[in-house]
Amino acid sequence: MRSLCARIQESFDAVEFSYNAAVTGISSIDLENEHACRTQADRLLLQLKVNGPQTASDLALSLRITGEAVRQQLQKLAADHLIKFQSEKKGVGRPCQRWKLTKLGEGRFSDAHSLTTVQLIQGIRESLGEGALNTILRFREEEMEGTYRAALRDAKTLSARIQRLAEIRSHEGYMAEWHEEEDGTFLLIENHCPIYTAATTCQGFCRSELSLFQKCLDGDNIRMERTEHILDGSRRCAYKIWPTTHNAEEAPQ
What we know:
- The chain has helices at residues 2-14, 21-24, 28-32, 40-51, 56-63, 67-79, 103-106, 113-127, 130-152, 158-171, 196-201, 204-217, and strands spanning 83-88, 96-101, 176-180, 186-190, 222-228, 237-243.
- With 253 residues, the chain is α+β, with helices and mostly antiparallel strands.
- It has two domains: 23-106, Winged helix-like DNA-binding domain superfamily/Winged helix DNA-binding domain (Arc Repressor Mutant, subunit A, Orthogonal Bundle), CATH 1.10.10.10; 113-243, Muramoyl-pentapeptide Carboxypeptidase, domain 2.
- Strands 3-4-6-5 form a four-stranded antiparallel β-sheet, with helices on one face. Strands 1-2 form a two-stranded antiparallel ribbon.
- It is globular.
């Protein structure tokens, strides 16, 4: 069972940044057929994917649009954190700005990892049953708990633990942030779900992670509830956290 657990864990680890690429991303068909891209933004991203960093003038020439149109697209995509520029100094004069994809932008291009993960989940469920899949999820949760607890070991306060957890989750691709509310509660926010496709197939991932957060942040000494959920149609996942010593019996409003 452990070798099977390791196999599915490797597939989970291989899932990179994705904006639900199977539905909204740029597919391999788009890579082969530029005209399949739906918008100028998609075409611009495709140029950067295929040809690497380029200047605005390079992009205008490739896309056969005006310099002003390219600049507008670059500004929008940069604001969405899909691209960024790097300055290159060539001879005398102002440095040249070359635009390239960010990791988030790379995630707009679908890959086989999410499909592989879904196939593994379905295969385990069909051949070994739901119990085996739950065993794998428990194994994954235990592995992550060990890693998280080690990282949180020297965080002495609840706010410090939440901050450290947000840093860990951001490193894992969840674009996490946190802040303290006026009523003394804390909000942990994840703006992206890099395992979205797997989670839609098996919502045990979401239940497992909620349990994981609870145990790692302070177990019985805190209360935690999910207030927003990407799988329910929200743009992000958000968790309200408060210590059991908080004056209110239930979650503060």
